[in-house]
Structure formats: C-alpha cells, structure tokens
Amino acid sequence: MRLCELRQKEVINVCTCSSLGCVIDVEIEEKTGCIAALIVPGPGRFPSFWGRDHECIIPWKCICQIGEEIILVEIDEEKCRKK
C-alpha cells in the first residue's frame, strides 16, 4: 500500500463511532523505516480559512483494521497526541 492510498481513506474511531478525518501524513521510525503513526488533522478553527490548531497523531498500535475505504482505529481522542 502506498501513502497516496492511505490518504484517500477516512479514519473512524471505533470507541466513539466518529470520523476523525482523512490521513494527511505518516510518522516513520528512523531506525526501522516502519510507519509509527498516522497523522490526522484536528478540528478547524472558526472561521475555517485560518487553518487548524493541531493534528492528531494515531500510533500504529491503535489501528484495528485497514479496509478499502476506511481505517478503523481504537483511540481515546482526549489522550490523542497532538502537535
């Protein structure tokens, strides 16, 4: 699977059944070259043209399943690492 394919998938939190958005980037471990986390944009500011306050970083271990159209994750959104 390529990064461009991951970016087309919507991330769904199975704990809250809510959409977190689509993948905008990945975090890679330097030593192994493996994907360490998916990065999803946080909620937008008002008005939305000012951008976003943060990004949610979802550790790879929190991914339950990657399907054709969605990625299921199990994560506490309050404790989600943010940039």
Description:
- This protein is mostly beta strands.
- The protein contains 1 helix and 8 strands, in the order αββββββββ.
- The radius of gyration is 13 Å and the shape is globular.
> Which stretches are low in confidence, meaning pLDDT under 50 for 5 or more residues running?
none
Q: What's the rounded overall pLDDT mean?
A: 84
Q: Could you tell me the strand content as a percent range?
A: 35-45%
Can you summarize the main beta sheet?
4 strands, mixed
How would you describe the shape?
globular
From the N-terminal CA to the C-terminal CA, the straight-line distance is 26 Å
The amount of helix comes to under 10%
Please give the radius of gyration in angstroms.
Answer: 13 Å
Order of helices and strands: HEEEEEEEE
Strand order of the largest sheet: 2-1-7-6
Oligomer: single chain
Q: What is the tally of helical segments?
A: 1
- Judged by helices, strands and strand pairing, the structural class is mainly beta
Give the tally of β-strands. Answer: 8
